[in-house]
């Protein structure tokens, strides 16, 4: 069985939703994971924000506006009266539920339920559409098998235990549809997967049933060797290892969330990134295999702040770094890059909510310098110890650009460089011309 995930743009209009059958083959065993219709989740976030602020009138207006959009969506997707009526009933049910929330106490628990409505709508409407054209399918409620534990981590064994019986109940059916993003938490409440959304769902479903492969269908033909929005002439990468893909995703490749492929990686299930608009394009295959001896891609991550702590107390001291890192842990602030010397340590962060408190505590160890408006440029490829000269080529490519920090050797897959954000475009272009041309 294959898992096919389609994002919001792939189901963003009735026309695009209908075209999914150009890709989906009802004769093959498949589970189709759908995101919410593009724009819906943003609208639901806005509605929730109004309700949390108790601005019920504004929330009601937003709900009504979104309801009207879905009325038009149903009319275009389901022209036959019988099925249009079924679709309208579904839409009216969900929006009656949303409207009812404007009369009650609204908490973050209800907010999670509101955010789930987009995926519940898209999957049910697509199921009705397939029925209207005579294509058999089964709607699998993700809330029946997708669960996160007390640490908000997905429970794959739980998914296996609860999903497989649902599939076994419909052995004569080959096409299944389920929701991305949504799940239940350890208390049984409606929740979401946070990181990676529907991609994460597809990877988790693939892991739960040991699928043949997971396909992530988006609006770009695979992961490119540079940012196509900035650099001309980028090309899709045919093959990446899971580790290489995770590095690229973490450091700026927007096509994939860095953690969304981890379940597939753990169970060695290939992940294929494909383009809904160009189904024939080869895309990118992410697996345990990778081409060796090559530089694969360049990515950049903005919004970085560098913090340098300098103290003579570091010299020959043990336990110093642990005390420094405990401050970041206490404020739940992840660190991207780390470099050290005998008397100083520099780190980078992109979560700044607690920056002032962190800096205040760091002053107890010595002087603290802050650099804002920084970007991390990450070059991913085969940087194993036996590969000579690759690091030199990277650094030589941007010798005319000031570098604030360098991280090399932390893994065999990347070199990370911290530069001023104003130099990012020049760095990406210069690296591309030197490494790929």
Written account of the structure:
With 437 residues, the chain is α/β, with parallel strands linked by helices. 38% of the residues lie in helices and 21% in strands. The protein is built from 13 helices and 16 strands. It has an 8-stranded mixed sheet, with helices on both faces. A 6-stranded antiparallel sheet has the order 12-13-11-14-16-15. A two-stranded antiparallel sheet has the order 5-6. Strand 1, helix 1 and strand 2 form a beta-alpha-beta unit. The mean pLDDT is 92. Its EC number is 2.7.2.4. It catalyses: L-aspartate + ATP = 4-phospho-L-aspartate + ADP. Keywords: Amino-acid biosynthesis, ATP-binding, Kinase, Nucleotide-binding, Transferase. This is Aspartokinase.
Q: Please write the string of helix (H) and strand (E) elements.
A: EHEHHHHEHEEEHEEHHEEEHEEHEHEEH
Average per-residue pLDDT, rounded, comes to: 92
For the record, the CATH class of the largest domain is: Alpha Beta
Total domain modules: 2
How are the strands of the largest sheet arranged? 3-4-2-1-7-9-10-8
* End-to-end separation: 40 Å
| Count of helix runs | 13
Strand content: 15-25%
CATH topology of the largest domain: Carbamate kinase
As residue ranges, the low-confidence spans are: none
Q: Give the CATH H-level superfamily of the largest domain.
A: Acetylglutamate kinase-like
Structural class: alpha/beta
Reported for the largest beta sheet, the result is: 8 strands, mixed
Shape, principal axes of CA atoms? globular
Indicate the radius of gyration in whole angstroms: 24 Å
Portion in helices: 25-40%
The total count of strands amounts to 16
What is the annotated CATH architecture of the largest domain?
A: 3-Layer(aba) Sandwich
């Amino acid at each position: 069985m294959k898992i096919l995930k389609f994002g919001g743009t792939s189901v963003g209009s009735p026309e695009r939703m209908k075209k999914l059958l150009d890709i989906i083959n009802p004769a093959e065993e498949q589970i189709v994971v759908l995101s919410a219709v593009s724009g819906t989740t943003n609208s639901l976030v806005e509605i929730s924000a109004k309700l949390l602020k108790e601005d019920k009138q504004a929330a009601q207006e937003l709900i009504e506006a979104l309801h009207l959009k879905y009325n038009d969506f149903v009319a275009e997707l389901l022209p036959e009266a019988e099925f249009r009526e079924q679709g309208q009933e579904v839409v009216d049910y969900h929006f009656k539920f949303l409207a009812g929330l404007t009369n009650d106490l609204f908490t973050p628990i209800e907010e999670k339920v509101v955010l789930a409505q987009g995926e519940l709508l898209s999957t049910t409407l697509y199921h009705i559409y397939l029925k209207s054209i005579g294509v058999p399918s089964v709607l699998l409620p993700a809330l029946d098998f997708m669960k996160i534990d007390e640490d908000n981590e997905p429970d794959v064994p739980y998914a296996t235990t609860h999903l497989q019986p649902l599939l076994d109940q419909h052995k004569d059916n080959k096409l299944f549809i389920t929701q991305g993003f949504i799940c239940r938490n350890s208390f049984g409440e409606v929740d979401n997967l946070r990181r990676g959304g529907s991609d994460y769902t597809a990877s988790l479903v693939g892991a739960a049933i040991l699928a043949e492969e997971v396909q992530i269908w988006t609006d770009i033909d695979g992961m490119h060797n540079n940012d196509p929005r900035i650099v001309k002439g980028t090309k899709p990468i045919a093959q990446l290892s899971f580790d290489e893909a995770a590095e690229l995703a973490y450091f700026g490749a927007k096509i994939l969330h860095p953690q969304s492929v981890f379940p597939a990686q753990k169970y060695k299930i290939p992940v294929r990134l494909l383009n809904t608009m160009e189904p024939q394009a080869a895309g990118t295959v992410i697996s345990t295999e990778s081409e060796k001896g090559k530089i694969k891609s360049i990515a950049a991550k903005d919004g970085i702040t560098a913090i340098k702590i300098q103290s003579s107390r570091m010299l020959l001291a043990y336990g110093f770094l642990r005390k420094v890192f405990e401050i970041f842990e206490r404020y739940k602030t992840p660190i991207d890059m780390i470099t050290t010397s005998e008397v100083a340590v520099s780190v980078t962060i992109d979560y700044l909510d607690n920056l002032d408190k962190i800096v205040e505590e760091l002053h107890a160890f010595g002087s603290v310098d802050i650099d804002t408006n920084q970007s991390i440029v990450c070059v991913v490829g085969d940087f194993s110890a036996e590969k000579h000269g690759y690091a030199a080529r990277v650094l030589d490519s941007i010798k005319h650009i000031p570098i604030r920090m360098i991280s090399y050797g932390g893994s065999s897959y990347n070199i990370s460089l911290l530069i001023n954000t104003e130099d990012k475009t020049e760095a990406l272009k210069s690296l591309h011309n030197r490494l790929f041309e």
